[in-house]
From TrEMBL:
UniProt-listed InterPro entries: DEAD/DEAH_box_helicase_dom, DNA_helicase_ATP-dep_RecQ, DNA_helicase_ATP-dep_RecQ_bac, Helicase_ATP-bd, Helicase_C-like, HRDC-like_sf, HRDC_dom, HRDC_dom_sf
Family designation: Belongs to the helicase family. RecQ subfamily.
Name of this chain's protein: DNA helicase RecQ
Co-factor requirement: Zn(2+); Mg(2+)
Lineage, broadest ranks: Bacteria, Bacillati, Actinomycetota, Actinomycetes, Mycobacteriales
Any one GO molecular function term: helicase activity
Length: 532
């Protein structure tokens, strides 16, 4: 790599102001851009909204040739190219949505050097024709956007990304920059290895999003809780509500509309025209709520998303971070609110058990889920936990003051006796009757409820029957959930039957202590700090 010549560096700043209309670089943008202009490879980890695009757009404008951007976000290419063309950048894209005439036009512009930036869908790189096309023009750099898609065990894995190592083999002298907003240390190493970015300099920005207020509440009547949140804190605001299933997306969107709140659905079951229309309405109109599965949102650049709500538990902390990161790109106060309950844990464990893939894969999913549960059940600062997860630990005692646990510190209590009662109910059913039941039945037994199902199975004659009346139904469910999260209890099968784990016996027979988080009577309605 040749050293950066000063005129090129001043060029970068000049491009920033003249083309993009900004006065100064943000964070490590300048360093990254200089490094790339100088011909170096880079691996960039920057949170959503951090300003990744300029990191390759400006070098592409400064260096000779065309910057080739690999992006999985086909649906957004048109928007990205339009936005660039609007500020006078010569940009084009090649993907499967075009007819051959449109493609040929872009190809010709590329070969003749009449483009600054060319966006490519990853699957096009498999085509020999694309490789030959790239040979015929001059490539100034390769930018690999959403680089975590190459991580095989990540939640956004795209097989086509594995082919991207070919870029380096075929064009060893063209600098490459891989960018992502989600990567733990392990994923970062995987990206570097798979994309053959061994020599690349890593630029890791802080993952803190101080303007996002993280809150995780226990799920009671999720739609009602959502409505209250929207009415009391986010009236008229734009936001995203994530649900796990298509059906709950539809139901939740209908529910909001019935209650006078403008909402649109988005999920893979809608035809592509409806999806595109809803997406563009969300981007262009004010105060709309997108109720969506996680199919929605990657690459969406809407600065004033004021809240991101999860009505179901995300599968991983990476997913949670990425999805909540879509709030508050403009830096103004925003809310990330997640409702989670026992049923989420049961459902996700079942999905893992029944998922396709080998044992290692399922174990991996389990580890992801456990990390997510730990975040939900923590009595410490949520932000501190999130940052620690991404390998950026904060000093102990450095509470952020802008998450629910900081604003209303949860109490913890000694749940050892409660845990023993609950586990022994599970144990006795299994040992004495050879039976397994779900949380509902176990809790009814502890509460001494003589329901039909209790009578039918003769569970009122168990020694633990009625031995748990010191806690209410909902509190017991909280205990079950937390024991599941702490892996002191397991769940299996289609009916979410509770089973003991290896660690259960430590509580039952070795007087292991169990600390539990107290369920607040009313979920904290956290005061908003003035912190930006
Ligand atoms: P990312 O891809 O990291 O999520 P973007 O590249 O979309 O982020 O940038 C997020 C927003 O910040 C965009 O609206 C972009 O124009 C703006 N932005 C980026 N860099 C700067 C800068 N140096 N000064 C002002 N605004 C910037
Ligand atoms: Zn905090």
């Amino acid at each position: 790599a040749s050293p950066v010549v000063p005129s090129e560096v001043s060029n970068a700043l000049e491009v920033l102001t003249r083309v993009f209309g900004y006065d100064s670089f943000r964070g490590s943008q300048q360093e990254i851009i200089d490094h790339l202009i100088g011909g170096g490879d880079a691996l960039v980890l920057m949170p959503t909204g951090g300003g990744k695009s300029l990191c390759y757009q400006i070098p592409a404008l400064v260096r000779d040739g065309v910057g080739v951007v690999i992006s999985p976000l086909i649906a957004l290419m048109q928007d990205q190219v339009d936005a660039l063309q609007a500020v006078g950048v010569r940009a084009g894209f090649l993907n499967s949505t075009q007819d051959s005439y449109q493609r040929r036009e872009v190809e010709t512009a590329f070969v003749e050097g009449k483009l600054d930036l060319l966006y490519l869908a990853p699957e096009r790189l498999k085509l020999d024709a694309t490789m030959r096309l790239l040979d015929r023009g001059e490539v100034s750099l390769f930018a690999i956007d959403e680089a975590h898609c190459v991580a095989q065990w990540g939640h956004d894995f795209r097989p086509d990304y594995l082919e991207l190592s070919a870029l380096h083999e075929r064009w060893p002298d063209v600098p490459r920059i891989a960018l992502t907003a989600t990567a733990t240390d392990a994923t970062r190493q995987e990206i570097a290895t798979r994309l053959q970015l061994v020599e690349a300099r890593h630029f890791v920005s802080s993952f803190d999003r101080p303007n996002i207020q993280y809150r995780i509440a226990s799920k009671k009547e999720p739609k009602r809780q959502l409505l209250e949140l929207l009415r009391s804190e986010h009236a008229g605001d734009a936001g995203i509500v994530y649900c796990l299933s298509r059906a709950s997306v539809e139901k939740t969107a209908d529910f909001l509309v019935e209650n006078g709140i403008p909402a649109l659905p988005y999920h893979a079951g809608l035809d592509s025209r409806t999806r595109a229309r809803n997406q563009s309405r969300f981007l262009r109109e004010d105060g709309l709520i997108m109720v969506a599965t996680i199919a929605f949102g990657m690459g969406i650049d809407k600065p004033d998303v004021r809240f991101v709500v999860h009505l179901d538990l995300p599968k991983s902390v990476e997913g949670y971070y990425q999805e909540t990161g879509r709030a508050g790109r403009d830096g103004l106060p925003s809310t990330a609110w997640l409702a989670y309950g026992l049923q989420d844990v049961v459902q996700q464990r079942r999905m893992i058990d029944t998922s396709e893939g080998d044992d290692a894969y399922r174990r991996r999913l389990g580890i992801h889920l456990d990390a997510m549960l730990a975040l939900c059940e923590t009595v410490e600062c949520r932000r501190g936990q999130l940052l620690a997860y991404f390998g950026q630990p904060v000093d102990a005692g450095q509470a952020c003051g802008n998450c629910d646990t900081c604003l209303t510190p949860p109490e913890s209590w000694d749940g050892t006796v409660a845990a023993q009662k609950l586990l022994s109910a599970v144990y006795r059913l299994r040992r004495e009757r050879g039976q397994k039941f779900g949380a509902g039945q176990i809790v009814d037994i502890l509460l001494g409820k003589t329901t039909d199902k209790v009578r039918q199975h003769g569970h009122d004659s168990l020694t633990v029957f009625g031995k748990g009346t010191e806690l209410k139904d909902l509190e017991w469910r909280g205990v079950v959930r937390q024991l599941l999260a702490q892996q002191l209890l397991g769940v299996e099968g289609d009916y979410g039957t509770l089973v003991l784990t290896d660690a259960s016996s430590q509580v039952l027979f070795e007087s292991r202590q169990v600390r539990l988080r107290r369920e607040p009577e009313r979920p904290a309605r956290a005061a908003r700090t003035s912190k930006p």
